[in-house]
Amino acid sequence: MLSTTHNLSEKLQKKKNIDLSQAIANVTSVLDLLSKQRVNANDNFKTLYAQVKEIAAKLDIKEEIPRVCRLQTARNNVPYSTEEEYYRRAVYVPYLDDFCNSLKERFESHKETVASLQHILPEFCTKTDFYSLEAALNFCEEDLSHKEVVQSEFMLWKEKWSQEKSENIPKTAISSLEKCDKTFFPNIYILLKLLAVQPVSVATVEGSFSSLRRLKTYLRNTTSESRLNGLALLSIHRDIKIRYEGVLDKFASVPRNLDFVL
């Protein structure tokens, strides 16, 4: 199961500029594959069980089934006729169901809003109409102008990208946001910004806590907040190249009783 979601986990944790519409598309692909495995659970588990038996034979491990419980408080007594059937019904199928439900709980709650919001992307807006944005407009009604204004703006946005070549049309919310004129398309800009900032994962936040744990030790217990923030930014964003000239210019811009000799 984890090998199926390995690439998805890597992408969600490492790719910071991914938006929620891309993430949901990737999760949907994984869920479709897992659903097919669930439908063909008998055949799939038969192959897995044969591999497990080979490994168990090499390690001299016998096939055993837990004893039947009189009081079924911690687990259920699964009916079975063979050891393979027991482990399929007691382990494989419940784990597969729980695996799919966890993915759905994490991403399905955003699906309706995102499915509506993604129609604002140039890739989709040329193939759809304004009423496809109904859920998105209800979601962020307080941030937008009157519905008629948004509708006219959407038609202008649609006309703009219908005249472009397919290779020049942006595919993601972030790239679309860069091509959006904030003054001419203010409501479209707000919708794109909402789509771009919808959180996909918490990997970046968890990484900052890990860096803070390394920095805030008992030897640095009296470090001031501004210094700690600076050290944390240097540690978290170590991939950003710093121009020494820019640092010196910023340092020298503050009035100081110092003579700089370069």
TrEMBL record:
The protein's gene is named THAP12_45
Q: Which residues form the HAT C-terminal dimerisation domain?
A: 170-239
GO terms for MF: protein dimerization activity
Name of the protein: Repressor of the inhibitor of the protein kinase
- Recorded source organism is Araneus ventricosus
Family annotation (InterPro entries): HATC_C_dom, IFN-induced_PKR_regulator
A Pfam family name for this chain? Answer: Dimer_Tnp_hAT
Stored PANTHER family: 52 KDA REPRESSOR OF THE INHIBITOR OF THE PROTEIN KINASE-LIKE PROTEIN-RELATED (PTHR46289), DUF4371 DOMAIN-CONTAINING PROTEIN (PTHR46289:SF14)
Q: Which domain of life is it from?
A: Eukaryota
